[in-house]
Amino acid sequence: MEKRKPTYRTDRLPVIMPYHWRSNNALQPGDLVYYGPCPEYYGVGVIQQIVEHLCIVDFRGTGETGLHKDSLEKKYLIPIHKLGLSHLLKEV
Predict the structure, then answer these.
(1) What is the per-residue pLDDT across 27-77, written as a single tens digit (0 to 9) for each?
(2) Can you give the C-alpha Rg of the chain in angstroms?
(3) Inside any domain, residue 3
(4) Does a structural domain hold residue 51?
(5) Cα 91 from chain centroid (whole Å)
């Protein structure tokens, strides 16, 4: 499998490992998020739907693997705009 170049500068996003404290931010549909442990692998996505503790996220193929949609637990999603991380995604 050929390694894809990410659409965003996900290499600049902080990696937040599963054993660290997770964000309890209130997430809602439309929020721009990334999956904490693997920002480069999954890429940056938009929450489409929330069902209990799961979020349906559309990553739109922005990560290395080209993944589009996945369901992830809210505790593993890091909100980009709410934490002021959007400046890290832009090209230099």
Answers:
(1) 899 999 888 777 888 888 999 999 988 999 999 888 888 889 999 988 888
(2) 12
(3) no
(4) yes
(5) 18
What is the DSSP code string of 25-59? Answer: ----TT-EEEETT-HHHH-EEEEEEEETTEEEEE-
Which residue range is the domain that position 27 belongs to? 10-89
Considering its fold, how many domains does the chain have in total?
1
pLDDT at 92: 38
> What is the pTM assigned to this prediction?
0.72
What CATH number is attached to the domain comprising 61?
Answer: 2.30.30
87: Cα separation from own chain's centroid: 15
Instruction: Specify whether the CB–CB gap between 23 and 33 falls below 8 A.
Output: no
